[in-house]
Amino acid sequence: MKSFADPPRALPVVGWREMVNLPDLGLLRIPAKIDTGARTSSLHGEVVEEFTRDGEQYVRFAVDWDGVRHECEAVHVDIRGVTSSNGETQRRYVIKTPLLIGKVRFRAEISLADRSDMKFPMLIGRSSLRRRFVVDSGYSWLQSRGMEAVRGHRP
Predict the structure, then answer these.
(1) Does residue 92 contact residue 79 with C-beta atoms inside 8 Å?
(2) What is the dihedral of CA 71, 116, 58, 96, to 10 degrees?
(3) Which long-range contacts (CB under 8 A, 24 or more apart) does 77-82 make?
(4) 8 A C-beta contact, residue 137 and residue 14
(5) Among 34, 66, 85, 141, whose Cα sits 20 to 30 Å from the Cα of 22?
């Protein structure tokens, strides 16, 4: 167990927005907003159907961004009540899949939500950030290969 006297290890720094990958879903370079106020990460996904494969519950869903529709399948771990930023509680499917931010790859729980009215198709919440990243909200694209880091909050 780590004690508070141990020096913290250097964590990679993310900006307030980053390009992220969900490699097992075939989704690459998804524009994502980093949001420490949200507990769970969420992805714009429309659930198409639930099904069982090899005794496991799966969900098939469609992800739309940049005018392209991506069909995906993932093991669904739960259906949870998630309170959105407007205070409304919605029942959402939650999947668990590898998430890649910069060079850091880990399994993340991600809720599927209608984010069609949002600027970013994905939101990265604090559960995915905890003990992996430090957030500098004054910058963008710090972990996004091929993007120039930008200072400031302008989209």
Answers:
(1) yes
(2) 110
(3) 77/109, 80/111, 82/40, 82/42, 82/111, 82/113
(4) no
(5) 85
pLDDT tens string 78-92: 999 988 777 889 899
78/96 Cα distance (integer angstroms): 9
Q: Which residue has the tokens 């370079």?
A: 29
| Confidence band for 110, pLDDT divided at 50, 70 and 90 | very high
Residue 91: partners with Cβ closer than 8 Å, 6 or more residues away: 79, 80, 81, 82
Instruction: For the chain, state the CA radius of gyration.
Output: 16
Alpha-carbon gap, residue 112 to 122, rounded angstroms? 9
pLDDT score recorded for residue 3: 60
Q: Which residues pair with 97 in a beta bridge?
A: 108
pTM, entire model: 0.89
Query: H/E/C letters for each residue in 95-111?
Result: EEEEEEECCEEEEEEEE
pLDDT at 104 over 80: yes
Residue 77: which of 54, 55, 98, 93 has the closest Cα?
A: 93
Which of 122, 147, 96, 127 minimizes the C-alpha distance to 21? 122
Is residue 23 classed as helix, strand or coil in its secondary structure?
Answer: helix
